[in-house]
Fold each of these.
Amino acid sequence: MFTHLVSSTAVERSTYIVHVDKSVMPKAFTSHHHWYSSMVDTLTQSGPTTSDVSHSKPSLVYSYDNVVHGFCALLSQAELKAVKNTLGFVSAYSDRQLKLRGNTGPGFLSLFDSIPWSVTVAAGSIDRFFTGTLSLGNGFTVTGWTLFPASALVEKLPLYYNKTVASCDSTQLLSEQVPFSNIIICENTGSFFSQLEAISRSNVAAAVFISDDPLLSIDEQFPWPGVVISPNDGQAVIQYAKTGDEPWASMKFKKTILGTKPAPAVEYYSSRGPSRTYTRILKPDLMAPGSLVLAAWPPNLIASKIGSSIPLLSDYTLLSGTSMACPHIAGVAALLKASHPNWSAAAIRSAMMTTANPFDNSNHPIQDKGRNNTFASPLAVGSGQIDPNPALDPGLVYDLTPQDYVNVLCYMNYTKNQILTVTRSKLYHCSNPSPDLNYPSFIMLYSNESTAVQTFQRTLTNVGDDAATYNAEVVAPAGSKVTVSPNMLVFSKKFEKKSYTLNIEYKAEGNETNTYGSIVWVEDNRKHRVRSPIVLSPEVMITR
């Protein structure tokens, strides 16, 4: 029972999240919510009122019993101290605003708060292109990109180009110098989003935007008639506007092209690994569609706009970000759990990762928009793009238990209470701390001063229906030697486990470079391929 009492007047209070060990709830209470309410209701406090968040007494805001065990409450400092002395208290911290950390790419180590027991998802593009067609009076036609949401009549209007206003960043200048009902050409000199805002507040009829901004393809608002074209096509359009006899242009909107290549690609904004939270686990895990995803939307909120004053409402809209990619993974995970109810969360993650596709729809390695469309490394794409059908039947999985994760927390010198905050149970122990996990990927950090050697221990579980034999196929990262022992795994029955070691030797030569490889366990009949990426990364890049 909770017995701490103090005198009562209004005082300054803040919101706190309190973690509680629910296993020690006194039998007098019928529910944990009842127990938490009793804790808070018993409190009183003295002191002057000094804040707008003051209340006459402490109050329970919310009870938690799924993701965490505990409650949220408005408490003073003295009341918080009293709570810390109660039965079942684990930890407490003040409520605070957290920033989204998945869209901070494309820099190395731009991935934050990626814990080993989570699934960390990169955001990729979709093989779909929303087009606008620009037709010039000289017969030249170019297909560009647009998300203008209406059918606008842009037919044979004068095409205007003037170097003075071509930056298109001043609504006043545009309104003063561009003739009414003209189509203006905006050069690739600044932010496309600023140009679009300025254009939508001016009196121009439409705009041709010349841009190669990698963030263009995720813009969700296009409030004014316009088409975005490449710098190469832009030169031809400018030349016609400067030299043509009464140059004019027309635009057509609302056409979608499907099956565009190459796709998917890692989006510019998607955060890159390794994770600053724990660098010994390769993150992100895999990639899913994240840009311009058709998403449900509150019908009473503005979904898009025409100009600066005409709002458009809808039950759906296009959204971008890793917050759009994650639901794809969650949905696939739910389907896998329904199909395989006895699989652990780690087994489900493994199935998704080892069957992910590292190639795009042109059968080339997935590209990275944050690296000028060059090869996307596992630090950007993880194991590859989620592929749900193979994930239903992965052949082998890397499984984990909660104690395995606790061993990592013990290695990181977490206190008992900190570990209890995560596990919500006292059943786990720190008798075998370990920095490594039975994870479906590999990352080795090396020093530039010597030859680096690291051995990884892994265990695979056969989730196929029959006995099976698998052989290891290794692509060693540049400058390294990778040895797998044994290089053949023979499973005689379903759910049988087999272990192997993967040993990496790397000679550091002063080059601060990430290198990449993979190990694939291939079934004799080629039915299953269980692939894991390998990354070698210099410690100096991690610790800067």
Amino acid sequence: MKDKARYFPTMVRWVGFRRVEIAVNHAARNEGQSSYSFKSLLNLALNTILSFSDKPLRLTVKAGILISLISFIVAAVTFCRAIMGYIVVSGYSSMMISIWLLAGVIITLIGMLGLYIGKIFDQVKDRPVFIVQQTINFE
């Protein structure tokens, strides 16, 4: 595979090999310390997640939709309160609802754009469509 960010466990999962868990007792390090800092470990985790999954992007779209939905509900409640005369500061509620609604729409659209770019990223990685496990009488 031609991936620049290679992380063996996820590549094994992607290829489709059978996996099992094996309990291992790791011994303490004999000398020195790990060369990985917290920042390096965080970068490794982000590269692994973003190279092999589009779930963070899908979560972004869902968060944007949720924010927009909550804004609609708050707008309906605020409208009912305005009709009944319970709104104390005029203009503040509508401004906040507008900001949250537009933020939800923008987050949703950015997530969708990210999913689109993620599809392009998957094509650019040029992973094989299938992997031949075994060939018979092939020369």
